[in-house]
Amino acid sequence: MADYTKMWSDLGLDLATHDAVLNIVGKAYQDVFLSQKNRPKGMEYFDFVMSEVHGLRIKELMDAKAEGRKIIGTFCVFVPEELVLAVNGVCVGLCAGAELGFEAAEQYVPRNTCSLIKSVFGFKLAKVCPYIESTDLIVGENTCDGKKKAYESYKDLVGNLYVMDIPQMKSPSGKALLKAEYKRFADKLEEISGNKITPESLKKGIEIVNNKRKAVKRLAMLRATNPAPISGLDALLINQIYFYDDPIRFTNSVNALCDELEIRIKEKNGVFNENTARILVSGCPMAVPNWKIPFITETSNAVIVGEEMCTGERGTRNFVENTGNSIDQQFDYIVDRYLKVDCAIFTPNEDRLNHIREMVKEYKADGVLHYGLQFCQPYLHESMGIEKSLEKEGIPVLRVETDYSQEDAGQLKTRIEAFIERIKG
Ligand code: BJ8
Known about the structure:
about 425 residues, alpha/beta, 4-stranded parallel beta sheet, binds Double cubane cluster
């Protein structure tokens, strides 16, 4: 990696802590990803992206800013990237997946707050995230209570927070609320960028994001084959990189990887053997560098074949109908697509259970590992009904509740190994 010290210093990062974080993540990446056997060659691109995650990509964001483009940071898949692209902006995900600065974070949020939210505060307070510091606007959303209340104090910390309201029911009034909020967000984007959204610019934005989603769907479908052509760890990494890479370059790289995997599938060249237990992971999102559960699972004689998560199919499935010829119609199509996201904040939320069932079938999973972050009420609640329903249908389920620490890694490994033995038996 080139020397980016000046850039990081200009962004106000704490250089010593930032160096320490890069070293820890680099080492973890080596142990978790680079130690895997027989990885597809196409993963080299994603390894490169990760090696430059705080370097070249941030430099690109700085260059984009110098050209007058606005950087929009997000925490949720409900923020439509299509609108950001339509004003020639750049969208980057800001969720964080490491236990860092939690003590400082607990001065702002209660101790019984999920690790994801604490990490968002921790990264800001420890001054280690160049993405947060590059943003022109950070978009929060009223999804779970944890996030909704946390944004009230996060606002004072960052100074450029914009909060979007999100419905809790998929009713006609919920749909009207989402459309009104997307219009309000579009106004804000136009105001800060100085660019007007036109039917043409929005069409282009929709096309770019649809193509990105089609590429990850293509990758997901290839994982239905046995032996699995790619590990769940690598697939998760791609789903994580989805949130901050350049969208067109990302799409091309995923498609190139899929071309390679299609050849591997013909040759029956898998990353695990055919008898390996196939697991579907479902639940809370896993932000970089949260690789704990997939690492434990895939070093316990199992392969993850799908993710029913926002860093996975929940976040990326369904496309926006791109035949609208007025802004209003285009907004309707955007709202139709986003309202299909079956986040656990919705009530009722039967779509999510149905989607898990479909994914089990489609990706030929032997069992479901439900991943819930401690104190995440929406997903922990839903996990109980999901377990009951699926077990009744003969689909084994393991419910795991954890956080970002490594303290429970041994105990989790024991439980996951026992689950794998059960489904293989
Ligand atoms: S659409 S899943 S990205 S809200 S883990 S902060 S739910 S207490 S992240 Fe999410 Fe959007 Fe929904 Fe997806 Fe709250 Fe749970 Fe924490 Fe969570």
